[in-house]
Every structure is written in structure tokens, then in C-alpha cells.
């Protein structure tokens, strides 16, 4: 179960009592408010609150008052211009607050994004749930032989069964000991802040994460990318869907210029110009290292 019955009841209550508002409303985002998007086996992402929409980006860029919308076409063109020219501050006028439930090893990668406000569930104060991330069989992959920071093909057969058994058994045993250590039945009971150190990194934690759209897009550029670890990428993918509904013009420009675009060095650009003139450019005469050339070919392919 991703949401506890108490959390679900709270969400149902909030959804049942909509408030009229004079604030900007993004129709696409309203459907996400108070709905948890399941991620991994026990995790979720849910939008708690947001501020602004595509028009708010344009409003700030024009430093205008009122809705800031000249025409829909104007707004989209302006947003594309801002994205293309790295004029980033208007995107900071939109904010999003998420409630995320995620394994601790994913949280360690996520927290490296410093330009957000975070408040995490306290395992000093509260007791952690018996919930651990156990990969689905297709995500249970071998170490990549070409990339030290990646994974290769999925494990199979007896090896996959054994690994899954270790992951489950170790997590359950650690949790049994955690519970036993904090128990105050017939003993003092170890402090929660100490007992938690016994738990593995696949235990779930939760936090509220608030970030502006500019920094969120930076996070998504890095974490929805194929180079990011699968377990954080699935959270980033879920957030991408939310952002696409929230600020459709900004998200389209982001997909075009950031996710789908590429940056070329002066040397690479020179190679492209030489190729366009019909010159046979190879790694040897490109001025690039083998690795750089391989990446350049990847971009062109
Ligand atoms: C595929 C991948 C592999 C990675 N591997 C490793 C690894 O092996 N080891 C490791 O330690 N990390 C690793 N990281 C984490 C990475 O180095 C960054 O810490 C992380 O992606 C956050 O990026 P950021 O600093 O740009 O983001 P944010 O912290 O959100 O910052 C956004 C931007 O704000 C500016 N900024 C924020 N704080 C400061 C500051 N204090 N000083 C100056 N400028 C600031 C910078 O311009 C920064 O780009 C990896 C990340 C990815 C995506």
C-alpha cells in the first residue's frame, strides 16, 4: 500500500471540500491536487500545492500586471524564447510543493538538489513502517560491463530468486531487530534515533519537497535522463507528467530545448560545419578525444 488509510482519509476530505479562489488556477494541475501517483512498490508522488501557470511566467517576464496574457500564441513564443536564451528567472515565479515517499537510497540522490525546501519524516520521533523497496524482477539487473555507474541485463533464474530472497530476508530481519530494540515491553527500549541505524537503505522515507519551476526543470533534466538510476528516474518521469499538465507551454519548450536538445562544443560545431561542406570528418581529424567523439556521434545519430 502506498498511502496509509489515515493519509487517504485526509486526502479524500480535502478533495471533498474545494475552496473558491481568486488565485491563478492551472486546470491541468487541479486534477493532480491531492492525488497520489504510485511509484515503485510502496512509493508515491503527490502534489500538495502549487503557484502559477504558463501565464505567470509571461507576466513576470513582461513585468506586467493582470493576467499577463497577450495571446496564447504570444505566450508560447515568449516562453520558448526565454527557455532558448536561458532567461530563467521568470520560471522561478512558479512553485510546486510535493509529498514524496521514496526509498532512502533514492532520497540520498534526490537531496543533492540543494535548491529546494525539504522537510523529512523524523525517524528520531516516529517509528518507520515495515516497508522496503524490493525491485520488480525486470529491474533486478546485473552490473553493467561498459558503465561502472550503470546496470546491464536483468538477472535470471536461480540467481534472481536468490538475490530477491536476500533482499527480502535481510530487510525483514533488520526490521524485526529494529522493532525489538525500540520495544519498551519488559526493557528500557533503545532510542528510535539509534535503532534506525540498523535499517537498510531500501527502507522508505517521506518528505515534503518545495521547489520553483526553474530548479525543478534542472532536476528533471538530470533525473529523467537515461543516465539517471532507474529508481529515481521513475519519480522524475511521474513529475514530468504533472509538469506537462501544469505548465504545458513551458514543459513543451523544456522537452524541445533541454530534454531533446544537445549542447555542442566549439570543436563539435566546427566538425558539423565541415561535414555540411562535404568533408570526411573522422575522430582522428576532429580534434576530439575518442570518448568525446563517441558522444558526438551519439548526438548526431
Ligand atoms: C547521472 C548522475 C550521476 C551522479 N553521480 C554522482 C557521484 O558519483 N557522486 C556525487 O557526489 N554526486 C553525483 N551526482 C550528483 C551531482 O553531482 C549533483 O550534485 C546533483 O545532480 C545536483 O545537481 P546541482 O548541484 O546542479 O543541483 P542543485 O543543488 O539543485 O543546484 C542547481 C544549481 O544551483 C547552483 N548552486 C546550487 N548550490 C550551489 C552552491 N553551493 N555553490 C554554487 N552553485 C550552487 C549550481 O549552478 C547548480 O547547478 C550525480 C548526478 C547525476 C545526475
Automatic annotation (TrEMBL):
Q: What is an example of a GO molecular function annotated in this UniProt entry?
A: thymidylate synthase activity
Q: Where does FAD bind?
A: 89, 112-114, 120, 212-214, 218
The catalytic site is made up of 223 (involved in ionization of n3 of dump, leading to its activation)
> Its pathway?
Pyrimidine metabolism; dTTP biosynthesis
Cofactor binding summary note: Binds 4 FAD per tetramer. Each FAD binding site is formed by three monomers.
Q: Name one Pfam family in it.
A: Thy1
Q: Which CDD domains match?
A: ThyX (cd20175)
Enumerate the PROSITE patterns for this protein.
THYX (PS51331)
Q: What class of enzyme is it?
A: transferase
Among its keywords, does the record have Methyltransferase? yes
Tell me which domain of life the UniProt entry assigns to the organism this sequence originates from.
Bacteria
Gene Ontology terms: biological process: dTMP biosynthetic process; dTTP biosynthetic process; methylation
Q: Which residues form the signal peptide?
A: none
Which keywords label this protein? FAD, Flavoprotein, Methyltransferase, NADP, Nucleotide biosynthesis, Transferase
Instruction: Give the required cofactors.
Output: FAD
Q: Which residues bind dUMP?
A: 109-112, 120-124, 196, 223
Record EC number: 2.1.1.148
Question: What is catalysed by this protein?
Answer: dUMP + (6R)-5,10-methylene-5,6,7,8-tetrahydrofolate + NADPH + H(+) = dTMP + (6S)-5,6,7,8-tetrahydrofolate + NADP(+)
Alphabetical list of HAMAP family matching this protein: ThyX
State the family it belongs to: Belongs to the thymidylate synthase ThyX family.
Role summary: Catalyzes the reductive methylation of 2'-deoxyuridine-5'-monophosphate (dUMP) to 2'-deoxythymidine-5'-monophosphate (dTMP) while utilizing 5,10-methylenetetrahydrofolate (mTHF) as the methyl donor, and NADPH and FADH(2) as the reductant.
How does this polypeptide assemble, per the annotation?
A: Homotetramer.
In Swiss-Prot or TrEMBL terms, this protein is called Flavin-dependent thymidylate synthase
* Source organism: Lutimaribacter saemankumensis
Amino acid at each position: 500500500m502506498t498511502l496509509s488509510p489515515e493519509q487517504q482519509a485526509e486526502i479524500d476530505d480535502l478533495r471533498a471540500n474545494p475552496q473558491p479562489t481568486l488565485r491563478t488556477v492551472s486546470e491541468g494541475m487541479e486534477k493532480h491536487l491531492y492525488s497520489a501517483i504510485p511509484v515503485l512498490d510502496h512509493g508515491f508522488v503527490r502534489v500538495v500545492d502549487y503557484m502559477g501557470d504558463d501565464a505567470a511566467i509571461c507576466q513576470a517576464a513582461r513585468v506586467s500586471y493582470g493576467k499577463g496574457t497577450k495571446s496564447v500564441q504570444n505566450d508560447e513564443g515568449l516562453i520558448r524564447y526565454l527557455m532558448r536564451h536561458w532567461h530563467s528567472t521568470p520560471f522561478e515565479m512558479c512553485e510546486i510543493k510535493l509529498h514524496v515517499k521514496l526509498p532512502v537510497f533514492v532520497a540520498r540522490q534526490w537531496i543533492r538538489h540543494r535548491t529546494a525546501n525539504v522537510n523529512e519524516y523524523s525517524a528520531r520521533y516516529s517509528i518507520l513502517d515495515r516497508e522496503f523497496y524490493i525491485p520488480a524482477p525486470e529491474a533486478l539487473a546485473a552490473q553493467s560491463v561498459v558503465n561502472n555507474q550503470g546496470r546491464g541485463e536483468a538477472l535470471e533464474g536461480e540467481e534472481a530468486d536468490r538475490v530477491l530472497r536476500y533482499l527480502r530476508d535481510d530487510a525483514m530481519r533488520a526490521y524485526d531487530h529494529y522493532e525489538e530494540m525500540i520495544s519498551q515491553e519488559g526493557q528500557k527500549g533503545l532510542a528510535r534515533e539509534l535503532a534506525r541505524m540498523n535499517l537498510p537503505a531500501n527502507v522508505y522515507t517521506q518528505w515534503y519537497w518545495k521547489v520553483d519551476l526553474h530548479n525543478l526543470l534542472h532536476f528533471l533534466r538530470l533525473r529523467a535522463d537515461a543516465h539517471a538510476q532507474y529508481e529515481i528516474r521513475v519519480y522524475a518521469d511521474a513529475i514530468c507528467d504533472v509538469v506537462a499538465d501544469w505548465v504545458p507551454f513551458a514543459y513543451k519548450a523544456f522537452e524541445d530545448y533541454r530534454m531533446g536538445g544537445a549542447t555542442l562544443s566549439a570543436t563539435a560545431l566546427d566538425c558539423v560545419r565541415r561535414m555540411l561542406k562535404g568533408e570526411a570528418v573522422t575522430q582522428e581529424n576532429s580534434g576530439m578525444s575518442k570518448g568525446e567523439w563517441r558522444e558526438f556521434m551519439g548526438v548526431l545519430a
